[in-house]
Amino acid sequence: MNGKKPFSILWVFISFVIFLFILNIIYDSYFTKKEIKSNIEIASNNLNYSIRELFKSHVDKVAFQLKLLKNQYNINKISFTDMKELNKIFSEFVKIAPEVSSINIGDSKKNGYLFLKTKEGWKNRIKEANKFGVVTWFEFSDSGYLIKKEERFDNYDPTERPWYKLAEKNNQVN
Q1: pTM flag (> 0.70)
Q2: Which residues neighbour 4 within 8 Å (Cβ) at sequence distance 6 or greater?
Q3: What is the tens place of the pLDDT at every residue in 16-37?
């Protein structure tokens, strides 16, 4: 019997140490998971904030430029059929906001203008309200020289677009 007691005490001691070891692992694991979850939430919030700020800065630049355009249109300084002036405005615009590759605008008179930046330069699509079923495409070099002009039969109807309806309703550029 004397030989079994130290053996039993040893097993109790070893079991107790193993229990403490397991308890320590569980404790560390629980708090590590909590810490990881907290760090992930912090990183996620920081990333969301950074992305929002990045987009906000781009949107603010674009919104400011479009507001200037509206103001110029409203005081009759520009016309949607004055392609040379619009290209001058928009070529400067895409320098300020290079992430913008196209601008499609219309007025309450049902005219439409597309500025499309390409690798070779830019293209314009002019939709004049008095020319039914026809749009005129212009291609310009990057330096602004007219390369090609082409009238195409096209059923494009900007008056069906939501921004046209808003322009018509408010009698302004949208």
Answers
A1: no
A2: none
A3: 888 888 878 777 777 777 777 7
